[in-house]
Amino acid sequence: MLLTSHPISQFRKNPRFYLMYDGFWFLVCAAVLGTFAVTGFTPLISGPAWWFAPVFPVLLFCLIWAHLLIHNATHGNLPKPINRIAGELLGLCVVVRFASWDIIHMRHHKHTDDRAKDPHPNFPSFWKTVFHTIVNVEKQLFEQYYEIWGDTAENQGRERRRAWMSYGTNVVLLASWFWLLGPAFFLLVFAPCNLLAGLFVIHFNWSTHNGEAARSLEDMRPTNLSGPWYRLGNKLFAGIYAHQMHHDRPTMFNPAKALAAAEAAIQEPAEQQAA
Ligand SMILES: [Zn+2]
Ligand SMILES: [Zn+2]
């Protein structure tokens, strides 16, 4: 049950879930660091080396796919027994972890483009969206908690403790990657690739909520993008730019395929009528 249930459903059942969740990963990372220290572990990669350059785009591509698979895991679109475990392992690779992805993303689907409740509402300006996304997500985790468990002084204290645990878990998780991969690879490849993959996800969210065409906040809504770059993006990343379709049918792994099938179904009777 624990290995297959979704973090959001545990979050709704147990007021201490998120603290315990990040506490668990804190202990795992602390144990990894302790083992490295006791055994005098030497990082896997020394360097810098010339091959960092070709590895950079490959790792970036893999990390974007990691976000994409985590997204599908939040919707239960991977084979049922592995959604949770795949989400957890990939969540460690992209540092943010599965529970925050799950809780925030379910909130995004419930309150899409609601200026106050969407955890990452978009603005016509991409860089303004980036800034607000980074600032807003932690605030929206608090809000989600208070909506379920009540905005009391006791719960505010709990959430502050949970936030400190989350920051601490980020620190030991990053330290584990740093020690495992070595400073050169971590600083020149792993960290920048993760930042760029995160930026890619924010750009994806901005563009698919009509960021490029929007002139005002009222224009923000899920949309299916079909320009040449977005068609290429759909081929590389399992149809992510058919985002209006994703909001309509979130259990489709590749919403672009579902959109093409729906469009073909509309066209066929029209062609039959014309004939
Ligand atoms: Zn969306
Ligand atoms: Zn989704």
Small molecules (ligands, ions, cofactors) in the structure: zinc ion
Q: How many strands appear in the DSSP assignment? A: 0
Write down the Rg. 21 Å
Ends apart, CA distance between termini: 55 Å
Structure annotation, total helices:
11
Secondary-structure-based class equals mainly alpha
> Tell me, what's the shape?
globular
- Order of helix and strand elements from N to C terminus: HHHHHHHHHHH
Mean pLDDT across all residues, rounded? 91
Q: Could you walk me through the main structural features you see in this protein, from its secondary elements to its overall organization?
A:
By secondary structure, the chain is mainly α. 69% of the residues lie in helices and 0% in strands. It contains 11 helices and no strands. It has helices at 7-13, 17-39, 52-74, 83-93, 98-110, 126-149, 153-181, 183-208, 228-236, 243-248, 255-274. Helix 2 (17-39) packs parallel to helix 7, helix 3 (52-74) packs across helix 8 and helix 5 (98-110) packs across helix 6. The longest helix has 29 residues, at 153-181. It is globular and about 80 Å long. The model has no long low-confidence stretch (mean pLDDT 91). The structure holds zinc ion (2 copies). One zinc ion binds at residues 108, 112, 209, 222, 243, 247.
Spell out the blueprint of helices and strands.
Layout: H1 7-13, H2 17-39, H3 52-74, H4 83-93, H5 98-110, H6 126-149, H7 153-181, H8 183-208, H9 228-236, H10 243-248, H11 255-274
Helix pairs in contact: 2-7, 3-4, 3-5, 3-8, 5-6, 6-7, 6-8, 7-8
Bound molecules: zinc ion (2 copies).
